Amino acid sequence: MRDYKIVVLGAGGVGKSCLTVQFVQGLYIDVYDPTIEDSYTKEIEVDGRACNLEILDTAGLAQFTAMRELYIKSGQGFILVYSVTDQSSLDELLQIREQVLRIKEATNVPMVLVGNKCDLTNERELTPEDGIEVSRRWNKVPFYEASAMFKMNVEDAFVDVVRQIIRKEAQS
Ligand code: GDP
Ligand code: MG
């Protein structure tokens, strides 16, 4: 079975860990510790193909570290997460994307943009159009509004990035 290395990136508190745990374990666990960085594995089938996903749930993106460079290097697909309740978390993704493209030395890196916490209607700072706008600027990177809490679009976002990796490999 092929391995697919996926890295979940984004500002602290946007829901990277909740999304990852919801995807891997099918549970919403709210144990907020912004410093915990962990990796998970999950086997899924994508278009009839058995895939072993290795998912790295990152933390502490505030400053650049050699460590981060290392896991971006080894990652094949990236889930870039912001929170629809936090404009600055979307701003932070611009730099993160630049960093990924620079380290991967490519423009067509398998990637999805995820606006999490879409269940928090009253706390929104960003509309779906804001995400669509960024996706357009990013070469039409697939965009999902998601809720880790309500398991909305969680699986879709992970499967999308795996499909992109498969497609990219088929081309090379
Ligand atoms: P991380 O720092 O990006 O890993 O963020 P966490 O996954 O730890 O989530 C931070 C906090 O955001 C959690 O304690 C949850 O309370 C909240 N959270 C995460 N995902 C959601 C979601 O989909 N909906 C809501 N309402 N809250 C969420
Ligand atoms: Mg976390």
Spatial strand order of the main sheet: 2-3-1-4-5-6
Radius of gyration computed on alpha carbons: 15 Å
What small-molecule ligands were found?
Answer: guanosine-5'-diphosphate, magnesium ion
How would you spell out the order of helices and strands?
A: EHEEHEHEHEH
Averaged pLDDT, please?
A: 93
Count of alpha and pi helical runs: 5
Helix content: 25-40%
Tally the beta strands. 6
Largest sheet features: 6 strands, mixed
Q: What's the end-to-end separation, in Å?
A: 19 Å
Structural class: alpha/beta
- Kindly estimate the percentage of residues that lie in beta strands according to DSSP: 25-35%
Q: Any idea what the shape is?
A: globular
> Which spans of ≥5 residues are poorly predicted at pLDDT below 50?
none
Characterization of this structure:
By secondary structure, the chain is of the alpha/beta class. It contains 5 helices and 6 strands, in the order E-H-E-E-H-E-H-E-H-E-H. It has helices at 16-25, 66-74, 87-104, 128-137, 154-171, and strands at 2-10, 38-46, 49-57, 77-83, 111-116, 143-145. A 6-stranded mixed beta sheet has the order 2-3-1-4-5-6, sandwiched between helices. Helix 3 (87-104) links the parallel strand 4 and strand 5.
Provide tags for this entry:
binds guanosine-5'-diphosphate; alpha/beta; single chain; six-stranded mixed beta sheet; 172 residues; binds magnesium ion
